[in-house]
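1st attempt posting a full record on here, be nice pls
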Amino acid sequence: MKSLPGIWRNLLVHPSSPKRRKGTIRNYNCDPAQAERKRKVKKESDRHNRLLYEKSPYLLQHARNPVDWFAWGEDAFSKAAKENKPVFLSIGYSACHWCQVMEAESFEDQEVAALLNEQFVSIKVDREERPDIDKIYMTVCQSMTGSGGWPLTVVMTPDRRPFFAGTYFPKEAKLGRQGLMQILPQMADLWENQREELLEIGEQATEMVQKISSSAQAGDLSIKNMEEAFILLQGRFDRQYGGFGGAPKFPSGHTLSLLLRWWKRSGDEKGLAMVEKTIDAMWRGGMYDHLGFGFHRYSTDVGWLVPHFEKMLYDQAMLAIAYTEAYQATRKAEYAEIARQVFAYVLRDMTSPEGGFYSAENADSEGEEGRFYVWTREEIKDILGERQADVFSRFYGVTEAGNFEGSRNILHVSEELDEFAEREGMDPGKLRKGLEESREKLFLVRGKRIRPSKDDKILTDWNGLMIAALAKGAQALNESRYADVAARAADFLLKNLRRPDGRLLHRFREGEAAILGYLDDYAFLIWGLLELYQATFETRYLKEAVGLTNDILEIFWDEKDGGFFFTGGDAEEVLVRSKEVYDGAIPSGNSVALLNLARLGRMIANEEFEKKAEALARAFGGQIARSPTAFAQFLVGVDFALGPTKEIVIVGDLDEEDTGAMLAAIHQRFLPRQVLILRPNDERREVIEQLVPLVKEQNSIGGKATAYVCENYACKLPTTEVDEMISQIESD
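the predicted structure (as tokens):
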């Protein structure tokens, strides 16, 4: 089903058409009964619906709509069944610009609310709280219409079977797009008079979703699949601006990580060149916040200039990883600096007092997208003075004419600082200092503006990604404070987002943890814990990672066909229990789980984990082989699983200089197929020996820090010399 089912061409009536199906379709614009209802509905300041008692910031945004919203749950569906009404489902998230537009146009409108309240049972879902629901009905929308996005709009039967889907709808029809004032009466009429046809569509849609969810094809994967992904990415690469394909352009940290691994494995410099071109263009463009740091969601144009201005925690995490790995690969200081700036933004604006990380910052403030971030030339001159403003404006592309909605400007770096300094006859050091002083002044003034709202819920999965990014940063950038922040977040999650029986939970807000954890919560947190162990060598994080891996196999593994389900066997029964492997804005749980299983199997010599990694790769192998670029993170896991891997054990005390020198030499290098274990000489030795039995026979030589470098558990001669250790690690 690539487009709307053919039945809709007969059932739906275009708003400008006088044609009618059987039954009566009310014109609510002139219906006296509707006018009377509208008079009776008062928009009082204390009016609210059930969403007022929810924790989700997105649901709370709709708590004072005149729509009689339900949160997803049995109450809504029971009411729909009892009253014999269809269900109107709206899915979005707090930082979504068009979700806010649709709310202002439609859900705050008395006429739309009256239609929904009379003819439907209306449900609001935060896609970030309930990704299981979102994934199912987004698949429906994409299959019915050929596209998707948020807000997601679905109409379904009381038993959850969808028969209509779309995205944003205005109140009234415009620009060829039907409005809710036309669609809702037609839906109600069809439900009353042609229900059999709707039920048929619902049955077809359900079967279609179930088929898609079970469509993974098994097959073996090899290095050839990585090469095919590289070739396809090379064909889509934008040689002028970096990135892949045309507008809109999305950042894809895992795609960059895959290209770095292909470069490392093959030696093909074109892979590294594509990464550098892309990350250079991204941070120089308007997609990067040059005053407050951090990346906006994506670029609406090919040149990375005009973003959608929301900031998502997962983008900060995945891009920080990409810039950190690029720094390890190239040793270019600017990549390390961007990673540090992203971390600075997260620590300053996205970290809760308890230690977890918030989810997102909105795109809109004062009713306008991007208003918080953009500047006129006159504003900058008033703050900096003419001379400073002139230099700053030319460097960051600020003009009187503007580049965004009239005279406003999105800051972007027009050229390399050294090139700009040479062209302007300025000292690069003084220019850098002056630009930083100007940035700080503008940042302070910007802080007095009305800020975009923040979605302050704490999600286990996104926090796991941020923990992994910070722990990687701690290693590569030699910044122990990043490890401290990551450890605090991990401790918070492990304490507050677990039930007494150990089952992970998905969301925390205002002291309440709720919603059974999904596959992504487990997989991403395990990733974070593994990176945190290699940054701190606190064995409790490795032990937690092992325990959660055992849990993930018990709760999510598909014993019949292999791979992990998105929801646990103990979760609410939904339309279909799906398995996700596509790596979109964030990687899939299956993709991250593949890397986790392969890494842990090597770290602790666990044959079961390695076999499960092989089975996981095989479960989706045929599907990935058909379109390898859609599964970049999965291929990152394949790269590790195929090896050769290096198992590195350092025997020594963490506070000793020679141990630190060995660890630093490893951390600063891009070594994507290594695992690192520290076996201390003190009482902590017993703990790591229980987790990793192979270290029992590995001792220090002459009281010095000693490295054991092994490949597939076959070890080279131990060494106390850093250069020799690196030579062994980098040898084929």
